């Protein structure tokens, strides 16, 4: 209902979380919804239409607020059968103020007819977004580097156009960020778990409010579908919520000693932690690293991949807005050189890295110089074992989930699909049919299931693997070709058709190496023992999966699989309350779950003497 009193309406909007003040002004994300009522049942449909309006605090006058609140519900129309349709707008905050498309939309007035809203464009559409604001962030604010010698272009995978210019941080900037983190650490580490939890819960709430906004920008920078990007934002939020809960449970042990003396242990934070991320889950990785780090009382300097630098800074803004001390979570942009500076920095206590095995080895070596704690989440070439007693429908769905999420650019993907011989023909027929049906195209469209790969060189590399597989004797059962969407604005994008390779053997390159693209290699096997031997024949051990209806076999097989994250009758499920990480060269340490507390704290033991010192001297 429209609220009459402008001041009250402002307060009401703030309380409901639909409106928040941003520095020096206000910015609204206006969303159109359609509410259908039939027989007392309301269904709300998101029209997918959003635009934004931005104005200064001094414009907060009665007239303006009336128009804002009038925008909340508009255009009620009754139908002859007694049902009605309400087209309404919701207001929520957006701080991605840099994006040109939003600026363009500022000229639209708020109190417009609903029809005009519905005719408007989606907030971000492929090929329209430019990011101009600084992407570095420390001391609670975005930072423009004063002396930038070189910038690097960042691309929009869906179109191939330049999205922004990256300003990499050198030693001066890395020092500033680490210093900011150190000073925030002094205050943050002394707060109680409950106090930290309050701020983290608030950050999670802001993420929930800005879900669509963050997901859209993730799509624009990464190329994955909007459907998946929303899931990533949800996973980030859930992770922060989960560790907010963990924060107040951190505790030590009391140990009784002779003569009334005792000892106790304290779980203490490490200090300034560094997070270094890969490009496949930019926002989610930033959250998966920062949430446990902050919950345990550490501060963090995070370096996103230079390929996808845009969304981590949104997380930094969100923590700051939620009440985190200045410098608690900082972003430094850059590639290898910036990463090296962070790993060698004397004031950094720990590095948590997500990326490739070769880089992981370098990180570990650099950390060894300062004897720093290190967590490595590295690559995989994971096996998926499908036994003939599996439910075919679920096995096929599992294999698709194991290979084609995020255009196949997922560390845990089960790319070596071992199918028991008797089931192979029907499995292949179904998996190929469904793979051909995957809708490729504009990642911002709801119907798209596969967007663009992250970059042109990466696309070429993946296509190269398909060529090589063909030469080595694999049969391309479908896909593996460059894909050019009909929409002219997408012609420069990095698309390919998802590929299923048959006739694969263990010695082929496509079966041995991590391709990190939408390429499934299918192999056949006869016996459980044989499948296990072949599945474990890899230097990597991130994940593995088993499909079978025999519960004893499922557990027997999983027990013998040399992988850190195993799935029975499903694949690529990563609830944040469950630890995730690899065996062998796929990594060290875990992310998510209770155990991660051990990777972000150190234990102090305190001995307390209640009697006299029993000295030998
Ligand atoms: N296990 C997991 O949880 C997980 C998750 C996502 C991705 N990955 C892996 O990541 C890889 C793909 O990501 P990528 O191409 O971004 O990996 P990458 O190793 O090339 O880069 C990862 C990060 O490391 C930085 N970096 C590169 N060289 C560095 C150096 N010498 N010192 C410090 N930092 C350095 C990069 O700038 C980037 O931020 C795949 O192998 C994939 O399996 C693993
Ligand atoms: C959420 N997923 C799809 C399991 C991805 C985990 C992170 C690895 O790249």
CA-based shape: globular
Major sheet size, sense and barrel closure:
7 strands, mixed
Instruction: Name every ligand kind in the structure.
Output: nicotinamide-adenine-dinucleotide, N,N,N-trimethyl-4-oxobutan-1-aminium
The SS-based structural class is alpha/beta
**Amino-to-carboxy terminus distance:** 83 Å
Helix content: 25-40%
Query: Beta-strand level of the residues, as a percent range?
Result: 15-25%
Question: Gyration radius, to the nearest Å?
Answer: 26 Å
Strand order of the largest sheet: 19-22-23-18-17-25-26
What low-confidence regions span 5 or more consecutive residues with pLDDT below 50? Answer: 18-32, 49-76, 82-122
Mean pLDDT across the residues is 86
């Amino acid at each position: 209902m429209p609220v009459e009193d402008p001041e009250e309406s402002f307060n009401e909007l703030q309380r409901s979380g639909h409106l928040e003040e941003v520095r020096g002004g206000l910015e609204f994300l206006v969303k159109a919804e359609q509410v259908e009522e039939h027989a007392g049942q309301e269904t709300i449909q998101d029209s997918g239409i959003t635009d934004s309006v931005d104005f200064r605090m001094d414009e907060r006058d009665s007239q303006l607020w009336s128009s804002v609140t009038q925008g909340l519900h508009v255009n009620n129309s009754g139908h002859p059968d007694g049902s009605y349709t309400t087209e309404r707008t919701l207001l929520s905050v957006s701080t991605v103020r840099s994006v040109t498309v939003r600026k363009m939309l500022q000229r639209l007035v708020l109190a417009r007819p609903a029809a005009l809203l519905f005719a408007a464009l989606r907030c971000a559409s492929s090929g329209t977004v430019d990011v101009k604001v600084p992407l570095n962030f420390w001391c609670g604010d975005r930072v423009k580097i004063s002396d930038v010698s070189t910038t690097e272009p960042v691309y929009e995978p869906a179109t191939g156009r330049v999205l922004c210019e990256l300003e990499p941080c050198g030693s001066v900037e890395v020092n500033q960020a680490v210093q900011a983190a150190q000073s925030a650490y002094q205050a943050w580490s002394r707060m109680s778990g409950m106090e930290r939890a309050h701020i983290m819960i608030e950050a999670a709430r802001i993420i929930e409010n800005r879900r669509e906004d963050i997901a859209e920008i993730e799509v624009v920078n990464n190329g994955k579908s909007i459907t998946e990007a929303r899931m990533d934002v949800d996973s980030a939020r859930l992770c922060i919520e989960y560790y907010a809960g963990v924060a107040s449970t951190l505790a030590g042990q009391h140990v009784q000693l002779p003569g009334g003396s005792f000892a106790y242990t304290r779980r203490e934070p490490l200090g300034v932690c560094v997070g270094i991320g890969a490009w496949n889950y930019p926002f989610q990785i930033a959250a998966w690293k920062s949430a446990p780090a902050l919950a345990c009382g550490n501060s963090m300097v995070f370096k996103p991949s230079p390929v996808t630098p845009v969304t981590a800074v949104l997380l930094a803004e969100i923590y700051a807005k939620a009440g985190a001390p200045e410098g608690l979570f900082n972003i430094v942009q850059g590639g290898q050189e910036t990463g090296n500076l962070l790993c060698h920095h004397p004031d950094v206590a720990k590095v948590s890295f997500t990326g490739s095995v070769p880089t992981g080895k370098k990180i570990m070596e650099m950390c060894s110089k300062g004897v720093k704690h290190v967590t490595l989440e590295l690559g995989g070439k994971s096996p998926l074992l499908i036994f003939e007693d599996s439910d075919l429908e679920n096995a096929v769905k599992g294999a698709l989930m194991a290979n084609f999420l995020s255009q196949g650019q997922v560390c845990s993907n089960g790319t070596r699909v071992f199918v028991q011989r008797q089931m192979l023909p029907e499995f292949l027929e179904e998996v190929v049919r469904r793979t051909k049906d995957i809708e490729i195209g504009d990642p911002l469209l709801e119907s798209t299931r596969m967007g663009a790969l992250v970059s042109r060189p990466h696309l070429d590399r993946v296509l190269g693997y398909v060529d090589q597989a063909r030469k080595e004797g694999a049969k391309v059962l479908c896909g593996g070709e460059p894909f050019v969407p009909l929409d002219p604005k997408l012609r420069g994008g990095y698309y390919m058709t998802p590929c299923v390779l048959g006739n694969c053997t263990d010695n082929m390159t496509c079966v041995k190496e991590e391709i990190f693209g939408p390429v499934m290699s299918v192999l056949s096997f006869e016996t459980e023992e044989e499948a296990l031997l072949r599945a474990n024949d890899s230097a990597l051990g991130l994940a593995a999966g088993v499909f079978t209806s025999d519960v004893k076999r499922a557990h027997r097989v999983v027990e013998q699989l040399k992988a850190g994250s195993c799935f029975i009758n499903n694949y690529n499920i990563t609830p944040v309350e469950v630890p995730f990480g690899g065996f062998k060269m796929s990594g060290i340490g875990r992310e998510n779950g209770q155990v991660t507390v051990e990777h972000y704290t150190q234990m102090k033991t305190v001995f307390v003497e209640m009697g006299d010192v029993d000295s030998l001297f």
